[in-house]
Amino acid sequence: MLGQALLVASRRPGLRKVVVGTPVTRRVVDRFVAGETLPDALAAVDALRRDGIAVTLDHLGEDITSRAEAVASRDAYLALLDGLAPLQLGRAAEVSVKLSAFGQALPGGHDLALELVRPVAEAATAVGTTVTLDMEDHRTVDSTLAVLAELRRDHPGTGAVLQAALHRSEADARDLAVAGSRVRLVKGAYAEPRTVAHTEKAEVDAAYRRCLEILFTGDGYPMAGTHDPAMIALALELVGRTGRSADSYEFQLLYGIRTGEQQRLAADGHTVRAYVPYGADWYGYFMRRLAERPANVQFFLRSLVTK
Length: 307
Ligand code: FAD
Hints:
Elements (H helix, E strand, L loop, with lengths): L1 H8 L3 H8 L4 H8 L5 H13 L3 E6 L7 H18 L8 E5 L11 H18 L4 E3 L7 H14 L4 E5 L5 H8 L5 E5 L14 H17 L3 E5 L3 H14 L7 E5 L4 H9 L4 E7 L4 H10 L1 H12 L2
Parallel strand pairs: 1-2, 1-8, 2-3, 4-5, 5-6, 6-7, 7-8
The structure holds flavin-adenine dinucleotide.
């Protein structure tokens, strides 16, 4: 219930003003967001690399309302890739983009998002890395998968995200479990109607297991995007069962969440990638993290009273 309310709140501009304007919010946000600037993000990358953890960087921004903002998102990613170039991290530092930040929801938005994300994919290829297209609410899935198919023609390493919660994702997983295809499987962070998605946790978990099995027994490069110990255990079991080599799959976890587990998996020889968000527009991302876990809300509320 609380989670659903927070997901609805994550799309309310009025509430955004209240939450963002509260100075103490910052301390809680810092737990999940690497900072507001590119140097902040690069400092977080450096710290994670010292623990042998790869990264995917997300310049925060979504649901933009003008072409100028979409162009600004593209430019922020080009600056990010410029900043990564001298570090020569190759695929150890990739980037994740939300097409809504590239104008996907504007009129003519599918073409605009493709036009603006293409140079980002080109810049990523030039520094030896890749782009992953985050998945947003279910109305965007067809457009995002079509952009993926376009980008993969010239940049075959471009990654996709599938949300186990959506009924369609098992079929999408089958389509995408092919050689060279990089797919991050997540449970899904958006409030979706019953008509298109599983809404009970047990159903979502069962769907995640089915999709994970499809991806790990397929020919692609699966990326298990989860903090759930049961799903991580299943991925490890599938690695054992399929005899996958350590360079043919990875675990992905969010910055600041289960960091001990991130370090443990990396120390055990698995590729672990932390999803590192940075930037000033952290509201939507932050609210989804609160929605996932009631304890995060308690932590947030406590910080409001213990200035
Ligand atoms: P859950 O069952 O939600 O959680 C399992 C355990 O993980 C919890 O008991 C808790 O210990 C820990 N945990 C989970 N969430 C939190 C949290 N917020 N704070 C603290 N502890 C927590 N969703 C999308 O819809 N589109 C995307 O593109 C997308 N990209 C993602 C990329 C990565 C790398 C990851 C890890 C997640 C991404 N998500 C995305 C979010 C995802 O859909 C889930 O909402 C989120 O990962 C929580 O699900 P879970 O698998 O961790 O399992």
